[in-house]
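Re-run requested by the PI after the first attempt was lost when the workstation crashed. Everything re-entered from the original request form. Ligand of interest: guanosine-5'-triphosphate.
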Amino acid sequence: MFVDIAKIKIKAGDGGAGAVAFHREKFVASGGPDGGDGGRGGNVVFQVDENLSTLADFRYKRKYTAQNGEPGKGKRCSGKNAEDLVIRVPRGTLVKEASTGRLLADLSDKEPHIIARGGRGGWGNTHFATPTRQTPRFAKPGTPGEEMEVTLELKLLADVGLVGFPNVGKSTLISVVSEAKPNIANYHFTTLTPVLGVVTGKDKTSFVMADIPGLVEGAWEGVGLGHQFLRHVERCRLLVHIVDVSGSEGRDPKEDFETINRELVKFNPDLAARPMVVAGNKCDLATDEQIEDFRAYVEEKGYRFFPIMAAIRYEVDPLLDCITEMLSKLPPVAVFEPEPEPIKPAEEFGHADVTIRNADGVFIVEGDWLPHLIQSVNFDDYESIQYFQRVLINTGVIDALREAGCGEGDTVSMYDLEFDFIE
Ligand SMILES: Nc1nc2c(ncn2[C@@H]2O[C@H](COP(=O)(O)OP(=O)(O)OP(=O)(O)O)[C@@H](O)[C@H]2O)c(=O)[nH]1
Ligand SMILES: [Mg+2]
């Protein structure tokens, strides 16, 4: 079954906790702190797998959790970092944040894309020894791994997309110009899922052609198989519009041509504006007048026109030559850029809960929402730090610290951060 949309939950591993331990050895009195750091939690990573062509695997498994980092141990032993969880998807999969629709990654290349970051390991107590604090009895917990719901949306990558009414010969064309073996039959909606074929054009250049199910009037409203398969030609650099020029099913080729173009506009005006060439198929069933009449009609509108007989590959080469030539001048297949996470204005943060512990004079602040905030702040940038301070004031963290007894010059420890409290 062809599945091109899925929704899954992903959770990166939490960082392991730092250890509280002290050096113990015969004849060595009160050895110093030697608690090791926690390990990093595993990231959730997406990567293209060329052997996959659908998102069917995600219908049955919907929750993906990476391993947590190991806690630190005594003797300055750091906990092991967890391995990344790699989720394999077909080429052309878009990963979006489910709640907002924000694009996180376009899996069009071979690179692994980290979508949910594993938490960092907490520091062991070794880090907290200072001349005045020789036996720190605390360590830090790891930060939690990112967790979110994502939608996966497959948008195939092809240079050329075939569009047209059902039964006009789209699959026949791809079958005679590539190794693709789609079903071909004399009825509507023979093709139920998109098919890709590699076509070798002139001068051994090759391009990828996509055959999709036929469209009918009202496809954008869900008539016939609907328009959902148009998504798979959305990235195409060029469309080949195939029309039954003989009108063998009683329709008028010009009306067919306009109907499909209207459906394209309704689906996505960008797609409708894509460069397009027109192939008039089933010329064996058409009269010369029919062919010339249709030719005049589409050429008048500025399209290149090729009369063909796909079934016997008659006059298909001039069409392929034209495609190759046009592709050589067109921009590459569209790859979508991930959208950055919008920064929430500091004023929009309301009160948020934190817990504060006083450990040997260090005020340890914890709250589920803090690691995410800290990750979004660039501590080398003055404005970014000011933003961070405003958020801490608005959420009540500064007041809570005061209430806990934190005063001028005391050390505040917040996950990866440690800073002095300044009134
Ligand atoms: N007479 C004639 N018939 C053709 C020609 N090309 C294809 N056909 C026939 O047209 C019918 C439909 O062909 P397909 O390739 O399955 O059409 P399609 O556009 O993929 O149809 P859907 O997948 O249903 O959208 C088949 O019976 C083909 O044999 C041609 O040049 N002349
Ligand atoms: Mg077909």
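Saved to the shared folder this time. The CA atoms of residues 167 and 249 lie 9 Å apart.
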